[in-house]
């Protein structure tokens, strides 16, 4: 087989047993190519790791005027808000968005396997999805600009927040209020369990306690799949401790919402009996009166879109943009209650 850099359309056509014209039409997704023939050509291109050169594509018919966007979730508000900001900027520049939803591990493997042979875009934006070395190699075969949004990926321009700094804002707030027994609800992505969600938020917890001279207690850390129900279950586990925490730091607001539900069902008052803080400033956080660390999600999407436009315009871009976060203090946090016993007596829910 010729070296990857020497593979051309003739090699793909030969492998698929078709003419070069047919191979070209199949790779361009021409409507007058039989489904079976197109599948054979695509399979041959994938086997050879053949990628249509961007220069040849432009000479043949110009740029695609499309930007690919890869997301692990499409129903969560974070990804929807990020995509909203990104799409608005690209739409104003007359660029279309081609959305790739990479769900579980099987979807992810299939996506990266097929990606190089299907160069249908001029750039690719990866939102909130860690990428390992073999996947980076597949991305490189596309020969297009790659931008990471909602997280950092090695060697690519990025737009994100500093998760460790956001975590410090949350935990330092609890320490400042006087809490010494602080629980943490950390999360994993249930569809990508090998990838921790925002590891900087976990690191921030340990660093904040160490700097405050607070001994670490492993029992105060609970790691669960991301989601409100999981947050509720985690809070139940923390309340079952002989000495429960006086405050809880949740990795996300959705997880914090679940923790709040458990506390209220247990008859505990927030924040008089226990404080809760989250991260993200979910659209419902204000209604829930939840103290949180806000990040401008839609704004990050807009910045990623502008970064794509600069790259497509031939401008050099820096390593990335780190967007600042801010602590938003609401009614779910307060100094710990001064009482000789803990936990406080459970209160009977008020009659409705």
TrEMBL record:
<keyword id="KW-0805">Transcription regulation</keyword>
<dbReference type="InterPro" id="IPR028082">
    <property type="entry name" value="Peripla_BP_I"/>
</dbReference>
<keyword id="KW-0804">Transcription</keyword>
<dbReference type="InterPro" id="IPR010982">
    <property type="entry name" value="Lambda_DNA-bd_dom_sf"/>
</dbReference>
<feature type="region of interest" description="Disordered">
    <location>
        <begin position="331"/>
        <end position="352"/>
    </location>
</feature>
<feature type="domain" description="HTH lacI-type">
    <location>
        <begin position="7"/>
        <end position="61"/>
    </location>
</feature>
<feature type="compositionally biased region" description="Low complexity">
    <location>
        <begin position="334"/>
        <end position="344"/>
    </location>
</feature>
<dbReference type="Pfam" id="PF13377">
    <property type="entry name" value="Peripla_BP_3"/>
</dbReference>
<dbReference type="InterPro" id="IPR000843">
    <property type="entry name" value="HTH_LacI"/>
</dbReference>
<dbReference type="InterPro" id="IPR046335">
    <property type="entry name" value="LacI/GalR-like_sensor"/>
</dbReference>
<keyword id="KW-0238">DNA-binding</keyword>
<dbReference type="Pfam" id="PF00356">
    <property type="entry name" value="LacI"/>
</dbReference>
<protein>
    <submittedName>
        <fullName>LacI family transcriptional regulator</fullName>
    </submittedName>
</protein>
